[in-house]
Amino acid sequence: MSALTEITSEADFSSHLSSLSPTALVVLYFHTPWAAPCAQMGAVLSALASQYPATTPPTISFVSINAEELPDISEEYDVSAVPFVVCLRSGQILESISGSDAVKVRDAVERHAGRGHAAGASPMDAVRTAIPPPLSAVPREDGPITATQPPVSASQAPPADSANATAVASAPGLTPEQSKEALFARLEQLVKAASVMLFMKGTPSSPQCGFSRQLVGILRERSVKYGFFNILADEDVRQGLKEYAEWPTFPQLWVNGELVGGLDIVREEINADPDFLNEFSVNKPTAA
Ligand SMILES: N[C@@H](CCC(=O)N[C@@H](CS)C(=O)NCC(=O)O)C(=O)O
Questions:
Q1: What is the pTM of this model?
Q2: Region (Disordered): which ranges (predicted)?
């Protein structure tokens, strides 16, 4: 599966771009380590990347760029605030999205990758209304790149094959209520990072618990396209999601931003409806 590639220098960026075929969709994700909304968007993009198989040559590439460390690249793509996502093909900007609107970013990527839904009824319509307004990004004049939420205390590189971009939700100076609010805002985005999201112990290629392994097997059998999040790599998400979901265990399967349940519930759903999840199968032809 695809993953976010961290760009370390301008030379690295140029060589990465030139290694791709001209028809590849490139998704540039500009962030700064101190902006909390970037941690959310990082996790959303990692989960999104995990839905696309890694092919040779790649047909899609997700690239992560520290906007402050690489100002020339940020300038080139008019990055005025973080998080900022640019969809690019053959050097042409197809679309830029400023702010932390997970659904907008996912729609744009799927549309440009050619896997999107036609205009009109989309499974995402149900959740669109529930999404909070995008983070209002502060336009940059000549000053630094800005974001309108308080900085987080730490960020940590995600494990190579995991969808996690972890950040501690409880920033110093926040009350427990504010920390919880920030964590729940992050979870609200995360559960919608993909139409089907699996919160599991470990990763699909290396599940760390039998229940998670079995649920991965069910999704695989049905060729379901899904994003995943390894809760073992993020204690805040592990504990917070139990409360947010009002569900005490993992795995947790979420569909269109709604909790389905754990392994037992998914099995019950399949027994009741053999077509359960089939609409998310990669084998299902895309509606015209
Ligand atoms: N019968 C449950 C099994 C899941 C389960 O019991 N998970 C436990 C052990 S892997 C769990 O997540 N405990 C809470 C934790 O580890 O934080 C299901 O249907 O999903």
A1: 0.56
A2: 114-172
